[in-house]
Predict the 3D structure of the following.
Amino acid sequence: MFIKKHNDRSNPPIDLFLRKDIVTSMNKGNFVSVAVEINERCAGGCLYCYASSAEDESLRADNISLEKLKEILELKKLGLKVVHFYGGDQLIHPQIKKMLFYTINEGFDILLPLAGLIPESKVDWLVEAQNLARSKKQEFLIGIHIDSLDQEIYNKTNAYPKSLQSKIESYQALLDAGFPSDKIYGCTTLTKQTGEKMIELLDWFYSKGTKHVAINTFKPLGLSRDQGAKWEPTLAQIEKVFRHLGKIEGKHMLMVGNTDGKYACQSHIAITTNGNVVPCLFLRDFSEGNIFEENIVDIVKKGKKKLKLDIKVKGKCASCISKMVCYGCRASAYLYAGDISASDPKCFFNPDAPERCF
């Protein structure tokens, strides 16, 4: 999210992408970050999971190996600075510790958005990884995914009701072990159900010391591909939640509505568990190649224009006051409106956006 801050409040997950070396690389047209889905098995229990992850023995815990990760990190030649490790449940990957420490030692910043279930045996070395990154003046940020503190709402969105308490305890275990509170960020998905009490969740995250909550507006994809009507939040819910976030994190955050911003989208690529290289993990139909079939650097060079989502948007997004930093969520346009170049139908700044699409 490359936007100018208008206050002095620290926000490590956002400030990272405002760092001079990263902005310089981005301004050269480089991809500065990559999101890598390292596995697909997960006990997080999200019933709507966009990646179709589940606690299923038929799903792999190690789709992307350490050796394949090393190949991916060759994107450093093209300006790569930041690695997002996605799952599945990344912590069940048999090589996850080696992958994280290798990535830090290679000079990359890391974001690790977890399902929130952290085994006690892994807490100490996660703190160790944070200390290593800090000693190198790099970032190692952990995300904790919780959709609601209201048990009744949580039960509607998660297959494992008892996991709510486990996630809360995992969060506290990290803090108790010395993981800096501002290096943990909240993760949540805004659905019709979770939107009922999401502001309470945001305030709880902030009370724990986090400086940022990453809110994913529900996308009809994966397990919920054909369940849009069940999960889609209303436009009013989206506006209420993001305006509250703006009050806490700064009004400048609203310049990009409920997206990560135009420059984030155009300087970011993703790799799915099956090896497809896509512009975004929510745009899984737009593969430019597969890392199990081609060299990643070659794929990115060849498909750069499409991977950058260099799209001429239509409608209100094209004339929005924030068009220099935002062009709407291209994934929402594609998944809700069926047109990747359409104006964002889930943006509350879009006067043509319906209250619901389904």
